[in-house]
Amino acid sequence: MGYTKQKIIDLLEKGLKDMSTLYRDKIINYKEIEGGYPCYDVIAEYLLEKHVETLMLSIPETNRTIKYRQLGHFVDNEKKEKILAHGLQKTMFDDIGEILDYEIPLTKEKVEKDEEDNHVEEDNHVGEIDMLAYNSDKKQYSIIELKLKWNNNDSLLHAILQICTYCKQVNREKLIAEYEKPSDKDIQKVVFIFKDSRQYNELKSDYMRKLAKILDVKILVLEAKLVEI
Question: pLDDT tens digits for 50-97?
């Protein structure tokens, strides 16, 4: 038996105490509540009522002490998402421009020493930006969250909240300085999804569309080409 609507709201209220980790809360990926009603609609409706765009302002910037831009990437053949992101480098897309880089870490790089005096990086549970794009005509950067077609675990709600969180955590000035392309615009938030995926089907929800709009998240569907929804 699934959770009731009130139970989901009660759990959501607890998650709202730390907006930087809300996207990782397990309820964000639940499909249905008791009675078969979409869980993501319950959550999106509540977030809209609570003015989620204001709540997002509480997410602090991550103080990364080393570079975002990496000299090389290890492509793990077991990670299909990284393989696709690697293959899309230098690809040009309408509106968002060229894919510059992928797998950009946001971790603070806080280093401590273990008992044998070896340096050990602290795991602070901050993720990686899947891809970074730049539109030379608009002089605007985009950070992109990529969801593969066969990824049925992550909801569209998860992807939207995740990319909004990363956009708040990244140091915009540091990122622009390292990639050396001028911009006086805010970073654009983008989610790539596949047609006929779980995320694509959830985009049919009016609440999900409203949430993406209020949070200024661009949703693009990846097939033979990217088509904006």
Answer: 999 999 999 999 988 889 998 776 555 556 666 677 677 788 888 899
CB atoms within 10 A of CB 46: 17
Most distant CA atoms of the chain, gap in Å = 56
Question: Exposed, middle or buried, 145 (CB in 10 Å: 0-12/13-18/19+)?
Answer: buried
Q: 152 pLDDT band (50/70/90 cuts)?
A: confident
- Does the model's pTM come out above 0.90? no
Distances from the Cα of 18 to the Cαs of 53, 75, 103, 175, in angstroms?
14, 32, 24, 25
Q: What is the DSSP letter of 68?
A: S
Angle at 38 between CA 37 and CA 40, to 5 degrees: 145
Judge whether 154 and 29 are in contact, CB under 8 Å.
yes
CA distances from 195 to 17, 123, 136, 211, 229 (A): 34, 34, 28, 20, 11
- Contact between 198 and 171 under an 8 Å Cβ cutoff? The reply is no
Q: How many residues does the chain have?
A: 229
Stretch 22-49: mean pLDDT = 96
